[in-house]
Amino acid sequence: MNFEAIIGLEIHVEMKTHTKMFSSAPIKFKAEPNTNITYLDLAYPGSLPRVNKNAVINAIRVCNALHMEIDDTLYFDRKNYFYADLPKGYQITQQFRPIGQKGYLEIDVDGEKKRIKVERLHMEEDTAMQHHYSDYTLLDYNRAGIPLVEIVSYPEIRNGKEARKYVEKIKEIVTYLDVSDGKMENGSLRCDVNISLRPYGSDKFGTKVEVKNLNSTANIEAAIDFEMSRQAACLLKGIEIHQETRRFDELKKETVLMRTKTEAADYKYFSEGNIPPIFIGKDFINRAIETSNELYDQKLERFLNEYKLNEVDARILLSSKELSIYYDEAVKNNDNYQQIANFIISEVLGYLNKNEIEISNFNVKPDDISDLVNLLIKKEINSKQGKDIFAKMIETNKSPLVLKEEMGATIISDPEKIRTDIIEIIKENPTLPDDYKNGKTRAQGFVMGLLMKKNKGKVDPILANKLIVEELLK
User: Fold this and answer.
1) DSSP three-state, residue 192
2) What predicted TM-score, i.e. pTM, was given to this entire model?
3) Quick one: which of 323, 380, 94 has its CA closest to 331?
4) What is the pLDDT of residues 266-317, one digit of tens each?
């Protein structure tokens, strides 16, 4: 390609709060339409906005994670436009003094670190949701007024992969901070892309095209890559690029024209008269930051340095915030960090993936996993018994200590008892020593099988294998 892509992203994140940004209406996902509303959400005359304190705290925490300058005074403005999903005829936002600005985010693309500058983060309210039918549209005001932060990058992204990594990092930040669930499929995190091309070496921007409402990171990457190819093909043919808004067709894997922009919208911004400037001060900002949850990167560093996990296992455990919390709980009173990690990755995740269950819906407590791993480490049970007890824990929700007794799960580790049984098996199969000495190593496995059968699988396998080899070599 003879052109360089200039890409900027605008990401809207729904804040996880109990009530809306400027009203006391509750927030409940999938509630019956128009049940979570107040007079303000419907723009009744005389209703006045009230700023949600928790939404401000959430915004401060995200600003801090993005290394931003944080304003100690809140200013709100009106963005005026008429649309069916905006009952007041304006949206309360922060146009002139955003709560955060001049930040950055580091992404990792194919092993290379890249820093993307973030222009601003501002708070605002969401609009109502429209449900379009063949000849009419219905409005659900439950979403009207839900707290949002909009995160605007500088146009420093150069391709679809970088954009995808950037959005994934934003999602990681808001979910680990617990300020949002970050679920793009539910609209909790929404992304618009602005993209233009220019010849390599040029410092002038090309004509910007906007791609709206991309609902997955995979679609963000695919839409940008398609749009880069489409615009390049047009420019090479001498076809002018028009300023327009497009959407991504998931089936065709291409962008589709929605509308052409003839001129920039004039929103006639002015200060929100019903919300005077609110001085929050440095102490309030610092408390919000100090009480923040651990970020992914902080938790990764702790897993590597404190728990001494290898990076592959640490990243698997950090693949979801809930799984990392589950692991933290499991090792709270148990320093067998790697053994517990191994069990969670192999057995717990194996069960969850097979049955398509989220860790948040898993009924086995972390403490019980810790106790089960202890039984295995102390060789009070063997690996097969451990698997059997784990399956029973899922089924009954009983502790492994109780199930060990109920299931009669013990392990034979008396070397004299094991050796006596091995000698008896070899006497019954006198060709086994010669077979083993002649390189037929399956003779060892044959003895182990008979030994386990004789003792109902309760023999210590490591000790048994050692003793089997000793007796076969005699």
Assistant:
1) strand
2) 0.86
3) 323
4) 899 999 999 999 999 999 999 999 999 999 999 999 999 999 999 999 999 9
